[in-house]
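Hi P.,

Sorry for the delay on this. The queue was packed all week, but I finally got your sequence through. Input first:
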Amino acid sequence: MLQLLQSPSPNRLLRNFLRNSRSKPLQSSSFHFPNRTATTVSMANLSSDTPSRGSITHIIFDMDGLLLDTEGFYTEVQQKILARYDKTFDWSLKAKMMGMKAIEAARVFVNETGISDSLSAEDFLVEREDMLRSMFPNTEAMPGASRLIRHLHAKGVPFGLATGSHKRHFELKTQRHGELFKLMHHVVLGDDPEVKKGKPSPDIFLAAAKRFEENPVDPQRILVFEDAPSGVLAAKNAGMNVIMVPDPRLDSSYLGDADQVLSSLMDFNPKEWGLPPFEDSES
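Then the structure:
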């Protein structure tokens, strides 16, 4: 049964940021992600005797851009706002904002674009909110999301959700997908009291891990699905395995920290991670 817990959102520089963020609030600054080689997998290249990466017992999903196709809404709205200042919203900025708590992402947005003297982070969120409210109810599921969630549920694999979205946005985004999200064991939102800092801090994944019935769960037995660079780092900082399913427009330099990179959830091979394989009827 879904337990909805109301929640109150290239290399060395980011790692310094992560260390510093444990003791002080987010400071708006430029940072980059490591450029290492990750494993990109297509189901066409996987044989039936693919070796297992490990015995995974629990799954944690991100939501935006991973299960639900909402990132396009954010891009559209943020570009509209920047157009007033003759500026463009590009993917290097989007990569830094993805997965963060709303106010943290807003601070990055106004500072990185140089509009902080004209628009505060708080005012940016108010303006963005007015436009997003009418968009979120039209959210579509990402390819393979329903198939994977229903498979895990049918096989008795415990899985939960860890999203930077706050309660109001979560309800709007999932309006058309209530039946699917009810299959989650629990949901941890970005304004949850235990989530002191947003991604790339590990707070949200640590909170989600604690709420499985089998608590404590060995973090090495947990597999996280993410689309955002900051979310991948949050999962790794929590000591967990992570599969990244990035937007194809994201620069490859952002993919290095994931244990595996897939082009779609449709490419996921459960057997490779020690999980029950898909039935022929689910293919």
